[in-house]
UniProtKB/TrEMBL annotation:
Record GO biological process: phosphorelay signal transduction system
Region (Disordered): 126-147
Modified positions (4-aspartylphosphate) in chain numbering: 52, 199
Official protein name in the record: Response regulatory domain-containing protein
Gene3D superfamilies: 3.40.50.2300
Superkingdom as given in the UniProt entry: Bacteria
Keywords: Phosphoprotein
Biased composition (Low complexity): 126-144
Segments forming domain Response regulatory: 3-120, 150-266
InterPro entries assigned: Bact_response_regulator, CheY-like_superfamily, Sig_transdc_resp-reg_receiver
């Protein structure tokens, strides 16, 4: 049985999450503020922590700072649950060791459960305790090599787009953004990115039309494309790959970190 600590001052939200997690076999404790969370962390290290940012007495960043500086706690995976998803906040939370981030207004309890199971399963020790999360194998990073590569993210979901762009820039990549297929094609032709991350359900021109058009152009046909979509039906995957997509990733089944690592892998295979 995995032990989960929820640090959240919203009693309704913590109650819903606690019930959902307990029904799925997890042992759950709740801290109503950051001070209480630190006290509970000191007494019993959980397998995973769900952490709000804005809390009484001690806020989420201060909890992260304490954990980050404590060797006994720094390996505990932390998933942030916050009312805000601003890139500067994501950056700060991730720099302090948070492994994932959920915006309260945008998630269902089932999504929290999926993420928890992912990080617990990824641990090399049954139960998840005492080891750093390893959702994907992390290839050796070469910042100088990353800086020589450009990535175009074609995605109309602002939160996901901002999160991917932030992670890619932190890895040293040159990043460009487009919010619809027409803008994406224009930037593809003008900028010739080294790789494209493409949503399928986007305005003006959808991802299938985007793929069909760019693969017909001799100047852009060789650019690798990773499809990142909520569509997970076999026919959608086969259609995208038939149109030239190099890889296909379903949003609900991955974290942004996995997308970034897949980008690195494909770039190494394609350009090195």
């Amino acid at each position: 049985m995995s032990r989960i600590l929820i640090a959240e001052d919203d009693k309704a939200l913590s109650g819903v999450l606690k019930k959902k997690l307990e029904l799925n076999g997890h042992e759950v404790a709740v801290a109503a503020n950051g001070e209480e969370a630190l006290d509970m962390l000191g007494k019993s290290k959980p397998d995973i922590l769900l952490l709000d940012i804005v809390m009484p007495k001690v806020n989420g960043y201060e909890v992260l700072e304490h954990m980050h500086s404590d060797p006994a706690l720094s390996s505990v995976p932390v998933i942030i649950i916050s009312n805000s998803g601003q890139p500067v906040e994501l950056d700060r939370a991730q720099s302090l060791g948070a492994v994932d981030y959920l915006v309260k207004a945008d998630f269902e309890p089932s999504e929290v459960l999926e993420k928890i199971n992912k990080y617990l399963t990824s641990s090399s020790v049954p139960g998840g305790a005492g080891t750093a999360p390893a959702a994907v194998p992390v290839p050796e990073n070469n910042p100088e090599q990353n800086r020589s590569h450009s990535v175009l993210v074609v995605e109309d979901d602002k939160f996901l787009r901002d999160l991917l762009v932030l992670k890619l820039k932190r890895e040293g990549f040159k990043v460009s953004e487009a919010v619809d297929g027409e803008e994406g094609l224009k930037k593809t032709r003008n900028e010739k990115p080294n790789i494209i991350v493409l949503d399928l359900i986007i305005p003006v021109k959808d991802g299938f039309a985007f793929l069909e058009e760019m693969k017909k152009d001799p100047e852009t046909e060789s650019i690798p494309v990773i499809v990142l979509s909520n569509l997970g039906q076999r026919e959608d995957i086969e259609r995208a790959k038939a149109l030239g997509a190099r890889d296909y990733m379903v949003k609900a089944q991955l974290t942004p970190l996995e997308v970034v690592e897949r980008i690195k892998t494909i770039l190494r295979e394609s350009y090195i």
